[in-house]
Specification:
single chain, mainly alpha
Length: about 120
């Protein structure tokens, strides 16, 4: 069950970030204009905030029920991998050798973290 909740967290967090990025194409979601806070709340930004907020609630549940030393590195690695893939597929960002090697090292770290003692 913890793995399913971990997947829900990583997907909602990743999708939240992706939607926030999509929403920022028309300008920063939050800015200061004439010393006043200005909000540019597009549907993408609102969806991103909702998903990211939901992911925070799921994350607090995860860390309260599981080993922090397991949840934090695994979730961080999975989010990085999802975001890396989305940045290539959705935002057409470039794959570099260094980024690909980083992903390979992250996969290796995930394998090591999941080895039984």
């Amino acid at each position: 069950m913890a793995n399913l909740i971990l997947l829900v967290y990583t997907m909602s967090s990743s999708l939240g970030l992706i939607f926030l990025k999509l929403g920022s194409r028309s300008g920063a979601p939050v800015s200061f204009v004439d010393s006043k806070l200005s909000l540019n709340l597009t549907p993408y930004v609102i969806a991103g905030l909702m998903l990211y907020g939901f992911s925070f609630v799921v994350y607090t549940y995860l860390i309260s029920q599981n080993d922090l030393g397991y949840i934090v590195p695994v979730s961080t690695a999975l989010i990085y991998i999802f975001i890396f893939s989305a940045s290539f597929l959705i935002f057409k960002e470039a794959f570099t050798v260094a980024r690909i090697m980083g992903i390979v090292l992250i996969f290796g770290g995930l394998v090591l973290l999941n080895l039984h003692k």
